[in-house]
UniProtKB/TrEMBL annotation:
Listed Basic residues bias regions: 172-182
InterPro entries: LpqE-like, Lxx211020-like, PCuAC_sf
Signal peptide: 1-30
Keyword Signal: yes
Protein name: Copper chaperone PCu(A)C
Keyword Signal among UniProt keywords: yes
Keywords: Signal
Length: 182
């Protein structure tokens, strides 16, 4: 797999081209079906790791400096896979987050050290739960824009994909620029 250091904020076009070539070489295309009824989506992923829901990024109002990316990952290996960091050319900082309830019963967003995809299982990154936080956006994102994201595993392998910017719907927990009180 490619070391994440090779993705030092390349232009979106260059990264998209690299992902396309890698997928073409392996024969992976969006919409392939594997492992039952799960639909898979384009991903330059380690062997046995697949994206099984359409990756998306929440559209935020103008002036908001951060947003989040969501997707569901399936692990078809015999060992847990831990995601330990992320990167995106659209953000100054990319972190792995979760919403946790504090002692007062209030849901708070917190950075996590890792997100585990269990052996033979799936992990959903979704509003109000685990997600990839894109902080210090370089410019406002636009509806239907494709955003490149790369996640790194504890083993040093990378999973690169593109997520589409769309409206987030009625989540109970927003992602704004004031979240960063870790």
């Amino acid at each position: 797999m490619t070391n994440i250091s090779q993705y030092q904020r390349p232009g979106r076009l260059a990264l998209a081209g690299a992902v396309f070539l890698a997928l073409a070489a392996t024969g992976v295309t969006a919409g392939e079906h594997a492992h039952g009824a799960d639909e898979t989506f384009a991903c330059d992923c380690p062997e046995g790791l697949e994206i099984v829901s359409a990756p998306w990024v929440r559209m935020m109002p103008p002036g908001m400096g951060s947003t989040a990316a969501y997707l569901t990952l399936a692990n078809h290996t015999d060992e847990d896979v831990e995601l330990v960091r992320g990167e995106s050319p659209v953000a100054g900082v990319t972190e792995l987050h979760d919403h946790v309830q504090d002692d007062a019963g209030v849901m708070r967003m917190r950075e996590v050290e890792a997100i585990t995809i269990p052996a033979g299982g799936k992990t959903a990154l979704e509003p109000g739960g685990l997600h990839v936080m894109l902080i210090d956006l370089h410019e406002p994102l636009e509806r239907d824009q494709r955003v490149s994201v790369t996640l790194e595993t504890a083993a040093g392998e990378t999973a690169g994909f593109e997520a589409t910017v769309r409206d987030g719907g009625g989540s109970r927990h927003g992602h704004g620029s004031g979240h960063h009180g870790h």
